[in-house]
Design brief:
The protein folds into two domains: 86 residues, 2-Layer Sandwich (Alpha-D-Glucose-1,6-Bisphosphate, Chain A, domain 4); 54 residues. α2 packs antiparallel against α4. The model has no long low-confidence stretch (mean pLDDT 88). It is built from five helices and six strands. By secondary structure, it is of the alpha+beta class. It is 50% helix and 22% strand. The longest helix has 29 residues. It starts with 9 loop residues before the first strand and ends in a 7-residue tail after the last strand.
């Protein structure tokens, strides 16, 4: 079963509280330590941290006025910093390593079978690590999805909100 991607999650909640009062309730909740990384971006927009261990996510919330209350749209996205670092490290570990190992084999074992196929063996060993990295990423996605659900539920109960009948659009 393929895990649902948290960066594609978008939930809309409806609360009877006016927008400013809803935001103040979330600020109070964050001061109690219940909303990790809470940061008010502008008047009615905020950001939270969603833990994925090690691939964290950010939840962006937008509060808008709605009939007799407010509408809170929560969108979760993958923070791209760590995946980018992992890809750069993987590429930089592969190609200089291939060249260095190949040149060392050519110096110490010139003309042998070991020196001839070093590049193929080195790349094969690097490719073998891809499934482990993918497993780490999918576990992180699952953890982030669970944390997203916890945070959404915490926000929903704090604001006494109900899920919107219409699905939110990305």
């Amino acid at each position: 079963m393929k895990p649902e991607k948290p960066e594609n999650q978008s939930v809309t909640l409806r609360s009877s509280l006016p927008p400013e009062q809803a935001l103040n309730a979330l600020v109070k909740l964050s001061r109690k330590g219940k909303l990790a990384g809470f940061d008010q971006l502008d008047n009615l927009t905020f950001r939270l941290q969603i833990f994925g261990n090690p691939y964290d996510h950010a939840m962006i919330g937008r509060i808008t006025p709605a009939d007799s209350g407010s509408s809170i749209e929560l969108t979760t996205r993958l923070l791209r910093k760590l995946p980018t670092i992992m890809i750069v490290v993987f590429v930089l570990a592969t190609w200089p390593g291939v060249w260095l190992t190949q040149s060392m084999m050519d110096i110490y074992f010139p003309g042998t079978l070991v020196a001839k196929y070093t590049t193929i063996v080195y790349i094969a060993l690097m490719v073998l690590s891809i499934p482990a990295l993918w497993k780490q990423f999918t576990k992180s996605q699952t953890a982030a999805r669970e944390h997203t659900q916890e945070v959404t539920e915490r926000i929903r109960t704090t604001l006494d909100a109900k899920p919107d009948a219409k699905p939110a659009t990305d």
